[in-house]
Amino acid sequence: MSQDNTQFDKEKIEERNIGGEEEEVENSEKDSDTETLVFDRGYCWVICLACFLINFGTWGMNSGFAIYFSVYLNNDTFPGASKIDYAAIGGLAFGTTLIFTPLINYLQGVVGPRATIVIGNCFQFTSLMLASWSRHLWQLYLTQGLMQSAGLALISLPAMTILPQFFKKRRVLAGGLATAGSGAGGVVFNLGMQKIVEVKDVFWALRAQSIISFGLIWIAIILFRNRSEHHKIEFTFFDREVVSSIGFYLALIYVITCMFGYVVCLYTLANFTTSLGYSEYQASIASAMIQVGSCFGRPLIGLLADKYGATTLAFEAYALSAVFVLAMWIPARNYATVMVLAFILGGIMGTIWGTFAPLLARLVGIRKMNVSFSMLWAFLGVAGLVSPVIGVSLVKDIVGPTQYEYCALFAGVSFAVCALSLFLLRGFVLARDVKLDSGNTDHDLQESIAVNVSVGQMLKHSLRFRNVKV
Questions:
Q1: Would you say which domain of life the source belongs to (predicted)?
Q2: Whole-structure pTM value
């Protein structure tokens, strides 16, 4: 087989694995006389804005828990509560209902994505408003922990399925711009709620936060359009073919270790700043700087991922995250170092949010994407749930900046393992493509994730970076 023909076959396979979704959407749209199919322009960018607002009012707001964590811990807001209790509440708020991603997928298949988001918005507003009236720890567990997590998942997960329907060539860029909303929200909620805490108290900050996010998400709901609303979502909990592939387990290691590092850094850098002798307000600026970094970094990651591949960019981003955490966090002893570290990490450690969907499409194909996403996101939820507790448990019982050494080591090693899993995942996909190009497999197998690849082939192709897009 000639080199030109080999390259042509690779392009066709990639088009089939990545582009199948657009073909399905296009075919469904051609059956409808009510809407003209348009990608990458016009109202598509309004949908991107709606997703930006969704991320602003969910993940961005959730990142503001670093402020509440610091206030609760330093002021003994709930008598008898320990640092483990507050960390557990943060874990509940971040990851509990992500564990039940398959059920949320089923719900939106029954009532539709828009109705699911409306239900989630009501949950999130009610949870934070009730949290502002909580005076016992168990009430905070139920409201700011469990109930808020339910609202966040019901809002954000359906929104993730809508944006790809409107973009082809600029899909990862649009995803990066949309996920930058979490960074913008993090800046607003970290700095704004810290100011309200200083002027009023932490309970008024919760009320203000609930009202702001409630209004913004309603704007997003009004702007949303769903091209596949008249199609029922196919639902299944488990796929034997997916879990028989080594690629699935590499992706599983990726999401778990990524969340370990991400959540520990997100929730801990503010407290680390106060351990250096700085004020809670200065700590809130450090937390907000993570979100500023994500505002700039995520669109840039999306732009580069469209050119070089989502898996490659994710590998490079988390390799850099490991280097910066281990090289800067452990020896950090001044405010300027913390600010620079927070900005850099904010720009790269959230790469998973904008690149995971195209990475998964490349790995399993569109036909298996829904069930694979559900299974992997459930494990991501588990990792997000336990990460804050692990992080706070690793803090030494001493006074001073060295109390966070183990925390930094855990985050840095987590990012390093995350990068290694992505490195091997690249090799798996490239080795699989080469095997498919050999002509020894039939057409049905070419659509399957369960193509067997040896460890040696995977390691060999992991080193290929020139003229490949993965």
A1: Eukaryota
A2: 0.77
